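Morning, I've got a small favour to ask if you have a moment. You're getting the sequence in one-letter code plus the fold written as tokens. Thanks so much in advance, here it is:

===
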Amino acid sequence: MSSLIDLTLAEARDGLQKKAFSSHELTQAHIQNMENSRALNAVVLETPEQALKMAQLSDDKIAKGKAGPLEGIPIGVKDLFCTKGVRTTACSNILGEFTPTYESTVTSQLWQAGAVMLGKLNNDEFAMGSSNETSRFGPVINPWKSDGMDLVPGGSSGGSSAAVAAQIGVGATATDTGGSIRQPAAFTGCVGLKPTYGRCSRWGIVAFASSLDQAGPIARNVQDTAIMLQHMAGHDAKDTTSIDTPVPDYESALTGDIRGLRVGIPREYRVDGMPSEIEALWQQGIEWMKSAGAEIVDVSLPHTKYALPAYYIIAPAEASSNLARYDGLRYGARVEGNSLDEMYEATRAAGFGDEVKRRIMIGTYVLSAGYYDAYYVKALQVRRLIANDFHEAYKKCDVLLSPTTPSAAFPVGSNHDDPLTMYLNDVFTVTANLAGLPAISVPAGLDAKGLPLGLQLIGPAFEEQLLLRAAQAIETAAEFNAQPTTWWLNNE
């Protein structure tokens, strides 16, 4: 039965339709692997009983010829997505044992399509982090190793990327605020897609920065990513930022043909001190696109150098506002005090971790009188200029190609006390969030230590079809099939 965990989503879907195996068998195989993979700390709450119940319902539907498009497929859910009757904590102490009485729109759509929930996946506390080391449940360990050292899986969706890479789930939900889908996908050899802002509903997802957050899938290949997105996307009246536009058939867009496609190479992404192997991979990606019939175009995004500073003003500002609701009064953990103010202070002091506190304080500072215009308003102006840069670039090209990250995965704890170095991990990814554009990371090679590296494509708004087609061309050319050694199975 172990071979069942090797199946891609598309293969599992086809096997279930042909009744080659049951959802119960498929789900049980993944539950077993989930239990055997606890050393990775990718799953913070296992739900095997619920998974098997959902699998049985799926088998009944398949038998009756009433199967949904994802019927019987076991997936993991990032712990930011509210799941009815299942603890949701955002991996923060301040939410305690919060158990929602409602379901997020994205997960609701996945269950309607027939997907099966294996459990809740680890993430950085409130999605604040680039390494999945800030979680109340401890760090996630990357399935990939180097020199015998434990590596980070990227963040904040490190539990999602590790779960997919370790074959704990066929796919996983994730969220991306400044690169939190794409960077973890790159660090673990998976495909991660951040859709256009507004493509997937944010309703029922614990908020970090509301104007930047976007849900998306992490999966094993481009086709699986397209299939998952199909059932995560769509208009939701409960989310005022959700766009009321039809959801295309993403899987059918995977024609493999990119002849005539104009691929832009942003000159500002060639940053000082870029490792030679990242530069070489980027150049290799350019050659792959040329060979597939694409036209390579040099483009400029002149305000890119201001993207990180702008992001780390806007995101903490929105976080400080969003996280003001966690006070111990209505739900979540509470630390008693002699007065209401004392209770607030004690609860927030005990409930929030250091990185969350740091960002709340930065956000409160830039929104305070005397600094609002100097920092926050200026950051919003820069954001508009960055969006304009992309608008101008897309007059000359159809998609942009760049590295996903400035390096491969780094050792756990190596940057923990250096937030600035950690923030620099987002140098290639934050621009897409600031402009609200779709972007995807595709595994494209290995570094000198045998660790996965990703290439990123950024497309115009609501052009996920185009993005997926271009991503598949890279995937086909790269022929990336490397797998981590299953060292964790011997470490139970």
